[in-house]
Amino acid sequence: MNEQQVGKSLPSEEHHEGGFRPMSELINAQLDELDISRGGPHYGAFIEQVRSLMDRARLACPSDELALETIGILKQLNDKLDAAIVDEWSAPTFTRIDLPARGNITLPPYIVDKADRDGVDARITFRTFHLGGNRAAHGGQVAVGFDDLLGMAAAVYSGAVTRTASITIDYRSITPLDTELRVRAWTERQEGRKVYARATLHDGDRLCAEANALFIVLNPGQQ
Fold it and tell me: What is the pTM of this model?
C-alpha cells in the first residue's frame, strides 16, 4: 500500500492538536511521500524475530532450567530495548507500510494488495501465537484482523480518522493457522459521521468468517 492509497484518511494537523495526535510522518505524507525509513532497514527482520518468539512462547513447556535461562536472556534484552523506547507517535508502527500489518506485532500479519474507496483487499496469516485450539485461529484474533482492515476501509472511504463503534462477527467455519487467507473489507454507506462497513475472510472458496461494523468519524481533537 502506498501514500496514494492512504490518501486523505491520514490524520490532519487539526487532529494532531487534539487527543488523536498523529505522527509527523503521517501529516507530511498528505503533501509528500510517506517515509518508511523509521526503525531502519532491519526493522522488518526485528519484528519477524519478535513474532517468532511469540509463536514459540505460545506452545513452549520449558524445564525449570530453560525457563530460568530464558528469563535471564529476556530480561537483558528488555533492558537493552528500554534505551530504544519512544512515544507512540514516534514509533515505526503506522509508517512502515512496506511491512506486513505495518510492522505492528499486536496484529496478525497481513499484506494489503489494494486500498481505495471501493474497499480493501488483503492477505492475512494467523500464526501459532494466534492459536485458539485444534490448529484453528482464536476468534478474538480473527476479530483483531477484521477490526484493523475494516477501519482501513472506513478511513479510506470517508477520507477521515475513524474509531470503531461496534463490530459483529459471524464465524462460519474454522479459520486455519499458517495459511494465507483472503480478506475483503468495504464500506457500504456513510451517514454523516457514521460509516458502515463489512468484511469477509476466505480460505480459498470457503468462507471462514464475516463481519459488520460501525465506525465514527472523529472531530478534530477527539480521541
Answer: 0.85
